[in-house]
Amino acid sequence: MEQTFIAYIENSIKNNWDLDALTDYNGATLQYKDVARKIEKIHIIFEESGVKKGDKIALCGRNSSHWGVVFLAALTYGAVAVPILHEFKSDNVHNIVNHSEAKLLFVGDMVWENLNESHMPLLEGILAIDDFSILVSRSKKLDYAREHLNEMFGKKYPKNFRQEHVKYHEEEREELAVINYTSGTTSYSKGVMLPYRSLWSNVAFAYQVLNLKAGDKLISMLPMAHMYGLAFEFLYEFAKGCHIYFLTRTPSPKIIFQAFAEVKPNLVIAVPLIIEKIIKKNVLPKLQTPAMKILLKVPIINDKIKSAVREQVINAFGGNFYEVVVGGAAFNQDVEYFLKMIEFPYTVGYGMTETGPIICYEDWKKFKMGSCGKGTPRMEVKILSPDPENVVGEIVCRGDNVMLGYYKNEEATKEVLKDGWLHTGDLGVMDAEGNVTIKGRSKNLLLGASGQNIYPEEIEDKLNNLPYVSESIIVQQNGKLVGLVYPDFDEAFANGLKAEDMERVMEENRITLNNSLPAYSQIAKMKVYPEEFEKTPKKSIKRFLYQEAKG
């Protein structure tokens, strides 16, 4: 019998007692024994203030060591964790806390400034993530527990808190562990109910394919309240006895670079945007010289140059990792082609909150460019299409990773869970080896004049590689395609262009782009946006906000 999810956590704490566990970058470090002690203290607070197994504990704040401690404390107690993205607007946070019926809320100071406790009447208390102090209490028991915490801890463990004292909740496979509210490129958040088997299966998958060992290092950049970051930058590494560094501020390319250089992580987990920024800003400019362009084409020198370039890119990520795993959004084709050409160790995975998160993956050595890997262990993936290799269809999957459903929302659950199969809403094809290639979201699909399928993501991918384009969305208006573009103003101004030149530049881009597109997907006009498009926390553009854009 494989160990359960909680057993992974419990055994790691006992086996790695004296190793470094969690570090706030440029801040304090907790060892595994410190994490265990803090978990124990939070359990005393839970117990004394009347939190029962199955009660919901919400947490909302930037990534930090204490965020991780609170999350683990909730699960190891038998409570249900409700992680909330700190980027959510305050009314969204209020709604999620109320909808999930959370009993306690642990909150980061930045988030707390914008919240209003009177909008969250069901809470019995609100505690600060950074020091577990009480911000709001509606319970005498909670006040008493927090006030006498150290005294109670001392009574419970008079001779020292040791490994043998670590004994946690024993879960059932189908038991609810986490309710994770989707960030969604569609407007309304739904509470995804993930059972323990999903957490267990995702960690077990990582054990099978990612070869980290105790003491290895990793940087956590993705929001922990998002399943991708939670599973593969925290839970798996913690279960392995790794040392996790949290970038507690918003990770700008500059901070990320600095952290990579100092920490030298053994594995890099990222979203495409981070990889693309690092390559476009720090690597490609050095290769755009005429001499370099010629050299990359000469077959003999080619390999030498390739390995020099590869080394440069590898060093940009700290130089010490097995592979870079990319997921969470589509990868830019030019950047991907470049990485493949220099034989950089990257791979693209695919998943969603509803599968906690993994659906497809392949090791970089066997990875097929442009795809997102194959169905992972304990997951069955298929394409609803008469000819899955050539005709695009919806991607569906079933297996241990799949959610129980959406919390208090049977209608939405029935829409996506049919006969055990999860309907992802993504469209793709699958080759004979089982490699899945995503073509786009079914709800983004546009129809050409004669019913041809137009995938806006594919056009955007080409457009994003044209001069001075930072990001773009393709929308359909009155039967015509319109390109909405947020330009790279920094680069444009650096090259002597002015804001008023943008319309002309984008018109030139439109003509270039149309030369590479079939007749039915020609772009009729371009519209320049002065600021970045609004995004979800995993950096996908919130497309639904821009469908009516007037040009």
What does this molecule look like?
By secondary structure, the protein is of the alpha/beta class. It has 3 domains: 5-14 and 29-201, Rossmann fold (3-Layer(aba) Sandwich); 268-320 and 323-442, Rossmann fold (3-Layer(aba) Sandwich); 464-546, 2-Layer Sandwich (GMP Synthetase, Chain A, domain 3), CATH 3.30.300. It has a 5-stranded mixed sheet, with helices on both faces. Strands 18, 19, 21, 22 and 23 form a 5-stranded antiparallel sheet that branches. Helix 1 (5-15) packs across helix 9, helix 2 crosses helix 3 (65-77) and helix 2 packs antiparallel against helix 6 (140-147). The model has no long low-confidence stretch (mean pLDDT 92).
Short description:
The protein is an alpha/beta fold and 551 residues long. Helix content is 35%, strand content 23%.
List keywords for this structure.
551 residues, Rossmann fold, GMP Synthetase, Chain A, domain 3, five-stranded antiparallel β-sheet, five-stranded mixed β-sheet, alpha/beta, 3 domains
Structural topology:
Elements lengths: L4 H11 L4 E5 L4 E3 H17 L7 E5 L4 H13 L2 E5 L5 H10 L4 E4 L1 H4 L12 E4 L5 E4 L2 H8 L1 H8 L19 E6 L9 E5 H14 L7 E4 L6 H14 L2 E4 L6 H11 L4 E3 L1 H11 L1 H4 L2 H8 L1 H18 L7 E3 L6 H9 L4 E3 L1 E2 L6 E4 L12 E2 L3 E6 L8 E7 L5 E2 L3 H7 E2 L2 E10 L5 E6 L4 E2 L5 E2 L1 H8 L5 E9 L2 E8 L1 H6 L7 H14 L7 E6 L23
Helix pairs in contact: 1-9, 2-3, 2-6, 2-7, 8-9
